[in-house]
């Protein structure tokens, strides 16, 4: 039976990747690619949707530090393409995160700015990965809320999921 998807809807060929990936897509109607990029690459923006305790410098080669109660992550900035892409690599944090990469690809689709999120390179789909996948969704919805309404829900005001928090 022929596929009902147009060529534009067909999945892209799988890139060579080791491990397992967390994938999310969120659309933001009220913002431009530039506004989304600013929320992903400035300390003010990151503090407004992910965690209020964000430090460092958002430039290629620099390290961003994201802190939560009882822990956090250090991300080395690998790529910054204004209005299009942000790529970090985890260099410190929980063992399951070390060496993984976090990317945000931004594109315009009509009235919507689309963010394609990927947290790639998990060695195993352990229970912590399940938790992190849902938490990424919570924080991506916080990003959407920030850009749609001017108010996100960064840590410590995020939705709590389970006893790990």
Mean pLDDT: 91
**How much beta, percentage-wise?**
35-45%
Sequence of secondary-structure elements: EHHEEEEEEH
Strand arrangement in the largest pleated sheet: 1-7-6-5-4-3-2
* Number of alpha- plus pi-helical segments: 3
**Looking at this structure, what is the CATH superfamily?**
START domain
- By secondary-structure content and strand pairing, the structural class works out as alpha+beta
Count the beta strands.
7
CATH architectural grouping: 2-Layer Sandwich
How is the main sheet built?
Answer: 7 strands, antiparallel
| Domain tally | 1
Q: What is the global morphology?
A: globular
What is the share of helical residues?
A: 10-25%
End-to-end separation in angstroms reads: 47 Å
> Could you name the CATH class?
Alpha Beta
CATH topology: Alpha-D-Glucose-1,6-Bisphosphate, Chain A, domain 4
- Rg from alpha-carbon coordinates: 16 Å
Q: Catalogue the unreliable spans.
A: none
How would you describe the overall organization of this protein?
The protein is of the alpha+beta class and 165 residues long. It has a single domain, classed as Alpha-D-Glucose-1,6-Bisphosphate, Chain A, domain 4 (2-Layer Sandwich). Helices cover 24% and strands 35% of the residues. The chain is built from three helices and seven strands. A seven-stranded antiparallel sheet has the order 1-7-6-5-4-3-2, covered by helices on one side. A hairpin with a 3-residue loop joins strand 4 (71-81) and strand 5 (85-92). Helix 1 crosses helix 2 (43-49). The longest helix has 23 residues, at 127-149. The chain is globular, with a radius of gyration of 16 Å.
């Amino acid at each position: 039976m022929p596929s009902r998807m147009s060529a534009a809807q067909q999945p892209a060929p799988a890139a060579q990747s080791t491990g397992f990936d967390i994938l999310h897509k969120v659309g933001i109607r009220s913002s431009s690619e530039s506004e989304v990029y600013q929320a992903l690459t400035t300390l003010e923006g990151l503090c407004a949707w992910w965690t209020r305790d964000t430090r460092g410098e958002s430039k290629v080669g620099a390290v961003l530090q994201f802190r939560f109660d009882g822990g956090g992550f250090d991300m080395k900035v690998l790529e910054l393409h204004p209005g299009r892409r942000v790529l970090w690599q985890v260099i410190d944090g929980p063992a399951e995160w070390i060496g993984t990469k976090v990317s945000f690809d931004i594109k315009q689709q009509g009235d919507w700015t689309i963010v394609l999120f990927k947290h790639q390179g998990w060695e195993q789909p352990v229970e912590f990965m399940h938790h992190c996948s849902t938490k990424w969704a919570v924080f991506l919805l916080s990003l959407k809320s920030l850009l749609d309404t001017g108010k996100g829900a960064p840590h410590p005001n995020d939705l709590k999921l389970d006893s790990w928090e």
